[in-house]
């Protein structure tokens, strides 16, 4: 996780409205990517990037990845109001 520290420091210096804009843009891009998959490809295991499984090499489908990242977005988005309230 230490490789993330420079990015965390960079993000911490950005205004909240800019962070929220970037989050919304990333979400729109995510939706576009998901919409480009057909059903077979969307549900076919093809990436080990998430390092799941006992030895970290289990393949996951784009649908699985989209569900994980969508859940993370929903959690972050639910706190938009709280973040904005805190910083304003």
Explain what this protein looks like in three dimensions:
Helix 2 (16-35) packs antiparallel against helix 4 (62-78). The protein has 88 residues and is mainly alpha-helical. Mean pLDDT is 78; it is low at 81-88. The protein has 5 helices and 2 strands. The protein has one domain (15-87). Strands 1-2 form a two-stranded antiparallel sheet. A hairpin with a 5-residue loop joins strand 1 (47-52) and strand 2 (58-60).
Radius of gyration from the alpha-carbon trace, in angstroms: 16 Å
Which strand order do you get reading across the main beta sheet? 1-2
Low-confidence segments:
81-88
- Can you count the beta strands? 2
The coarse silhouette is: flat
How many separate helices?
5
Largest sheet: 2 strands, antiparallel
How many angstroms separate the termini? 30 Å
Helix/strand structural class:
mainly alpha
The ordered string of helix (H) and strand (E) elements is HHHEEHH
Mean pLDDT across every amino acid position: 78
Strand content: 5-15%
Helix content: 55-70%
- How many discrete structural domains? 1
Secondary-structure blueprint of this entry?
Layout: H1 5-12, H2 16-35, H3 39-42, E1 47-52, E2 58-60, H4 62-78, H5 80-87
Antiparallel strand pairs: 1-2
Helix pairs in contact: 2-4
């Amino acid at each position: 996780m230490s490789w993330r520290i420079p990015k965390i420091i960079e993000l911490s210096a950005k205004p909240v409205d800019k962070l929220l804009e970037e989050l919304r843009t990333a979400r729109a891009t995510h939706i576009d990517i998901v919409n480009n998959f057909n059903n077979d490809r969307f549900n076919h295991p093809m990436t080990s990037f998430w390092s799941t499984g006992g030895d970290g090499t289990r393949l996951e489908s784009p649908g699985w990845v989209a569900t994980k990242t969508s859940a993370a977005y929903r959690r972050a988005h639910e706190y938009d109001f709280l973040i904005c309230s805190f910083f304003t």
